[in-house]
């Protein structure tokens, strides 16, 4: 047993280096340094320097808010000298915005809040992405189903009366509604309504409010049916304006 432990210790050496900003070459302070192969963790100091045990072939990942998360495979030369690694900033470039014909402050805020930047998070090539699974116990219909309450009376009482479980379901409903809003705003956009009706400016804004569609209707109804209804309402809208 002692011989095995001695062999492992000989294979592992400290990797010593400095982490810098790839653009400014300034030290990156207090970044997380993780050896994914051994689950060992450290942080860079105020000068960007770090020291972590590793063997050749170990994966060492560097991460900190404001920078891209990157991983390197430890090489033999890393064990013989101090190394320098550069971490790129995680910059977000927004499309140009032309400030004109903004209908209302509320719609402008909604577009900004619903903007989804590109995911720049680190992931290993060849590994499948995680898939979120729906938890049936977060659905009110499941826990209030008479069949479930009859076959799982104790669990039904817990899920129906537990404050913690109620808060979980409430949070789940909020997230689900946010996802629904994102789908609707991507589907039923101001630009699309303009293409269908040829309305512009305040007249387009007034028409959208005139239609007063619910989120549930816009989410579940095919776009071609919404288009037909829009054209029917457009005739009524113009008649009411003339009246």
Automatic annotation (TrEMBL):
Alphabetical list of InterPro entries matching this protein: CarboxyPept-like_regulatory
Superkingdom of source: Bacteria
The protein, known as: Carboxypeptidase-like regulatory domain-containing protein
Species of provenance: Marinoscillum luteum
């Amino acid at each position: 047993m002692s011989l095995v432990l001695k062999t492992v210790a000989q294979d592992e050496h400290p990797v010593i280096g400095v982490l810098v900003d790839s653009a400014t070459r300034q030290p990156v302070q207090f970044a997380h340094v993780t050896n994914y192969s051994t689950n060992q963790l450290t942080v860079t100091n105020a000068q960007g320097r770090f020291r972590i045990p590793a063997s050749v072939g170990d994966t060492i990942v560097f991460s900190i808010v404001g920078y891209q998360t990157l991983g390197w495979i430890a090489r033999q030369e890393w064990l013989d000298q101090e190394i320098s690694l550069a971490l790129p900033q995680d910059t977000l470039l927004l499309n140009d915005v032309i400030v004109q014909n903004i209908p209302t402050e509320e719609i402008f805020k909604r577009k900004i809040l619903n903007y989804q930047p590109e995911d720049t998070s680190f992931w290993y090539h060849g590994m499948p992405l995680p898939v979120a699974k729906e938890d049936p116990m977060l659905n009110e219909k499941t826990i209030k189903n008479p069949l479930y309450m009859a076959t799982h009376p104790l669990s039904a009482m817990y899920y129906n009366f537990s404050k913690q479980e109620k808060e979980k379901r409430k949070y789940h409903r909020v997230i689900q509604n946010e996802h629904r809003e994102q789908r609707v705003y991507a589907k039923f956009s101001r630009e699309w309504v303009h293409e269908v009706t040829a309305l512009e400016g305040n007249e387009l804004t007034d028409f959208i409010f005139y239609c007063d569609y619910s989120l549930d209707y816009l989410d579940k109804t095919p776009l071609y049916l919404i288009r037909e209804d829009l054209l029917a309402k457009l005739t009524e809208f113009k008649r009411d304006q003339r009246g």
